[in-house]
Amino acid sequence: MLPALLYVVAITQLPFLVSIYYSLTNLKDKTQSLTPEPTKFVGFQNYRQIFSDPFFREAMWTSVKMTVLAVLLSLIIGTAFALLLDRKFFGQGIIRTLLITPFLLMPVVAALIWKQQMFSSLFGVLNKALNFLGLNSIAFISDHPLASIVTVLVWQWTPFMMLIILAGLQSQPSDILEAANVDGASGVGIFRQLTLPHLRPYLELGALLGSIFIVQAFDAIDVMTGGGPGSTNVPYFVYQESIGGGFRYGSASAYAIVVVIFSIVIATFALRLLSSLFKDEERG
Amino acid sequence: MHEARTGSVRSRRTLVVVLITAAAVIGATFAGAASGRSTAKTISVAIVANGQMQDIAKLTPSLFTAKSGIKVKYTILDEGKLRQVTTRDVGSGGKAFDAVMIGPYEAPQFGVAGLLKDLTPLAKGDRTYSYNDLIPAVRNALSANGHLYAAPFYGESSFLMYRKDILAKNGVKMPLHPTWQQVAAAARKIKTSSMAGICLRGKPGWGDLGAAFTTVLNTFGGTWWSAKPNGKPDKAQVDQPAFKDALDFYSTLVQDAGEKDAANSSFNECLTQYQAGKVAMWYDATVAAGTLEASDSPVKGKNGFAFAPVFKTKSSGWLWSWALAIPKSSPDPSDAWKYIAWATGKQYLRAAGPRVKGGWASIPPGTRVSTYRIPQYKKAAKAFAAITLAAMKAAPINNPGTTKRPGLPGVQYVGIPQFQDVGNRCTQLISAVIAGSMKDTAAISQCQQIAAQAIK
Fold it and tell me: Is residue A45 part of a domain?
């Protein structure tokens, strides 16, 4: 296995070390100065700058809002769909396939569809509907950038949550539910006291995986708003600072490394939570 | 135990097979790309997605490849993406493109930094190219220290286009040299629920909203940075009163009488709305006139043209050209020049006239003096040819405002590398002000911070 290990180290860890080195320099693109400037070692200057940069703080805050909103909403809607799909009805297979479709679409395509065919004030379906009802058009993306992006993310990630929750629902032993029915428990009561506790690990797993993916959201932002107040999250900020226009590779590396450190901390907690869940499962 | 081991041997074998297959596929891809380059004579060109460029992309196989045997692979991108891709490729010495489309902002900067091939000897040495036929204002804007770094594909200034019929119906008379106050009053008067008074760019990006806004800023007496005597940027000037005046004027005009969803509109969006009869006036690039007066245009013959509106300066129109340059790292510079000489030469203009969808009026304007002597073009472009040339000549590229500018010459941009990023990020804030989701004072204080930080 040694060659494989070396290969993995070479393609994942070496670039990371190089990034750390870059983050301690003032490296920038050659197009960014009229006369060639030598790259200087600047120590921790880039890092000191990060914490005084209000735009980075804003991007962090946007990331938090975007992730929390998107994960929560897609979990709630996903659970609702899963409960519906858990029953037997005519055409169930087709409905299930249709509900999963948004997740199978490429994120760029999903964002483009929403931007041009749903939100657009010229030929968007939503504004056509509003006008039909006698209401004024809304410039969804320009007036509510965060809400628009969260809408697309929720649309894409609801099926993912739905599948996880559905797996949870189908693993629920039916004899308990029957017993509850016989005892005269109401539907809401069964859901709150039996189904929900049973779903807890699945909900947590969905939230965890969802957060890991949604915190990296980039496609929707690039396609729909191209950044700006309320829609620049941390990945997009780092992109703008580096190859997206700023071309300051040194400070962009520093931002990226701070983000990696934060992610490792969060991921560690998350993994601990996950492993404790599995232990509970074994004991239970 | 035994079973488990065979299992792991089998899975290891599968892994090896998968890895070998993957390696073979990757290897084949590289080999294919390499051999494709060496045998078939293909060059890669990055261009911007405007009408005239789409036309040339369509005509290239029949007019160029058929004669020269050189295939051209186009990458067509919108303005913002094109800049990212070309800057990245040119700056890092990448070999993705043999020729890239850039403008007067990039050409002198990249040229001085030694990243582009000097086209002067090629252009002067090529008799059929006739270097001296290039319009001097455009040629100078694409040169630095007498070296031409990009060959102009089209050239433009900015001016005001308006629907003569709509203005007449509203009793508005537009002078040939209007002021911004006159234009604003007219826009507010004309505006109805189904037709906006004016279309102004509101989409973030220094070349989008940034270009239109900076011409307004200049003529309002504001600027982005003050200049030191040696031409280096001195202090950010975004927090000065003139900047706020210009911003407030621009954003309230768009909010009161501008197009729908202004924060997402730039050249192409305004063009669509103007042609659909949704706006009465439009301040933008002169090159648009060719599309408005094209033989297949729904508003043909209904348009009036006036010079870029002013306030405190005599002229305010910008100067821009989409031009083709050869990166120093180009894998095939001599074929690239053959292509550029064809695409920006006289012959293409004459060949394109009868072939493009919009007819003679929509051939690439503003690059060659001789274009304006072609009888068919003179006839088709009667409404706007003279004013286009005059506007390009009048563009105040060396002294665009009321104070000295840092960096290389420029009207709608500041000729320093930092402007690209500052312009992009600040126009996101200005766009938010136009959308009404941000206060002007908040945008100004954040933008001042961005502009100040960039030149530290």
Answer: no
A226: domain CATH number is: 1.10.3720.10
Report pLDDT digits (tens) over B150-204: 999 999 999 999 999 999 999 999 999 999 999 999 999 999 988 999 999 999 9
Residue whose pair of structure tokens reads 């990448």 in the numeric block: B94
Q: Is A7 on the interface with B (CB under 8 A)?
A: no
- CB of B425 within 8 Å of any CB in chain A? yes
Reported as a single tens digit per residue, the pLDDT across B33-49 is 544 444 568 999 999 98
pLDDT at A265: 82
Shared-domain flag, residues B376 and B297: no
- Whether residue B391 is contained in a domain is answered as no
Cα–Cα nearest to B454, from A281, A247, A17, A235: A247
Tell me, yes or no, whether B137 and B186 share the same domain.
Answer: no
- Which residue positions in chain B have pLDDT lower than 70? 1-40
Is the Cβ–Cβ distance between A255 and A270 less than 8 Å? no
Residue A262: predicted pLDDT: 82
Give domain status of residue A40, yes or no.
Answer: no
Phi, psi of B182, deg, nearest 5: -65, -45
What ipTM goes with this model? 0.81
A91 contact B CB<8A: no
Task: List the domain range (segments joined by +) for residue B367.
Answer: 43-155+320-380
- Residues B389 and B381: their CA atoms lie apart, in Å, by 12
Establish if B16 belongs to a structural domain: no
Give the pLDDT band of residue A281 (cuts 50, 70, 90): low
User: How many domains in chain A?
Assistant: 1
Q: Is residue A213 classed exposed, middle or buried when 0-12, 13-18 and 19+ CB atoms within 10 A define those classes?
A: middle
Structural domains counted in chain B: 2
Residue A272: which domain range?
53-283
Test mutation, A28, A29, A34, chain B, max B CBs within 10 A: A34
